[in-house]
């Protein structure tokens, strides 16, 4: 790690405490000049570090700094050795991680960003990804076993992992709107986009990138007009280390389900977290739409609905709306 990264890790572990430059230098085995230069560099990047004479340096407790070191501090042993990269701004974490996958990036590679200029949602839509208010994270998988044959269920794994991470870190109960949206208090706070690549030579699955966008806080300028009625955020005000804990908890839960749970256990949790079973919805298809009641979510992730004439249908793709 660079001196700047070492200092940031130290300040994050002592967030809210003033520590003298001399003590920091001694503990980190750095010169006081190196500490001072690293503090200045971090301050220029926007980190809220206060310097007070006779007290030292302090990373403000209410700040929520998103960093690789901060995320790594909360990772479980299943994820501890994952290669993790955090960039301030990208076009799309999914797009960039797919490029890295083509270049040989390993299973478990993680790419995170504080802003996306071209965040992607399902069906070619744009995912609003403003600076500093959210978490944008993509995970590269090279599946074996069950998920090699059923990669679409990884979207369900991500949904369950996100809901559990939100409950653990924010103490809030989010729900899943089939197939990839996470809702809290009637508004979308997270979205999942799973993209797979298949080999042209043998038709076998090569890799899967699972991306998640999480609206942690409301954007400073507010949501765009077209999203104000449907988009929400997990929290109103910053809480120290929330982003790091959320990102780590999502990865921890995801890999626990991926490695240790049977598919039926995952789908049972997915059903329990659903906000659409038993509800009237609008099924939106490319060329038509119709009202239906959601009866169940099947073990393969398909939606079982009953149309107004009493007939039933299973949906493996498409979209449903709760607003009609």
Which CATH architecture of the largest domain would you pick? Answer: 2-Layer Sandwich
How many distinct helices?
9
Enumerate the strands of the largest sheet in spatial order, edge to edge or round the barrel.
3-4-5-9-8-7-6
The CATH class of the largest domain is: Alpha Beta
Distance between the termini: 52 Å
Mean pLDDT score, rounded? 93
The CATH superfamily of the largest domain appears as: Bira Bifunctional Protein, Domain 2
Runs with pLDDT <50, length 5+? none
Largest sheet: 7 strands, mixed
Binned strand content: 15-25%
What Rg is obtained from the alpha carbons, in whole angstroms?
22 Å
* Structural domain tally: 3
The total strand number stands at 14
SSE order, as H and E? HHHEEHEHEEHHEEEEHHEEEEE
């Amino acid at each position: 790690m660079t001196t700047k990264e070492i200092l940031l890790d130290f300040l994050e572990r002592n967030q809210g405490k003033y520590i003298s430059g001399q003590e920091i230098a001694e503990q980190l085995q750095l010169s006081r000049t190196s500490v001072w230069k690293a503090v200045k560099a971090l301050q220029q990047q926007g980190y809220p570090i206060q310097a007070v004479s006779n007290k030292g340096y302090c990373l403000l407790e209410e700040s929520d700094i998103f960093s690789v070191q901060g995320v790594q501090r909360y990772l479980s042993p299943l994820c501890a050795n994952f290669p993790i990269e955090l960039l301030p701004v990208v076009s799309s974490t999914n797009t960039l991680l797919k490029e890295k996958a083509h270049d040989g990036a390993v299973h478990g590679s993680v790419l995170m960003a504080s802003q996306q200029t071209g965040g992607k949602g399902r069906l070619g839509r744009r995912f609003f990804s403003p600076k500093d208010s959210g978490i944008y994270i993509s995970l590269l998988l090279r599946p074996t076993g069950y998920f090699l044959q059923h990669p679409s269920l990884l979207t369900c794994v991500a949904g369950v992992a996100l809901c559990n991470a939100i409950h653990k870190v924010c103490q809030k109960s989010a729900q899943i709107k089939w197939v990839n949206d996470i809702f809290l208090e009637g508004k979308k706070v997270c979205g999942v986009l799973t993209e797979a690549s298949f080999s042209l030579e043998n038709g076998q699955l090569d890799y899967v990138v699972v991306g998640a966008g999480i609206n942690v806080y409301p954007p400073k300028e507010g949501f765009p007009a077209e999203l104000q009625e449907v988009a929400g955020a997990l929290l109103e005000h910053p809480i120290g280390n929330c982003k790091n804990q959320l990102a780590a908890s999502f990865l921890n839960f995801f890999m626990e389900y991926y490695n240790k749970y049977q598919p039926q256990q995952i789908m049972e949790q997915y059903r329990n977290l659903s906000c659409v079973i038993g509800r009237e919805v609008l099924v939106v298809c490319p060329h038509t739409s119709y009202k239906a009641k959601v009866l169940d979510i099947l073990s393969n992730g398909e939606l079982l609905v009953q149309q107004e004439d009493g007939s039933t249908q299973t949906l493996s793709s498409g979209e449903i709306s709760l607003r009609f």
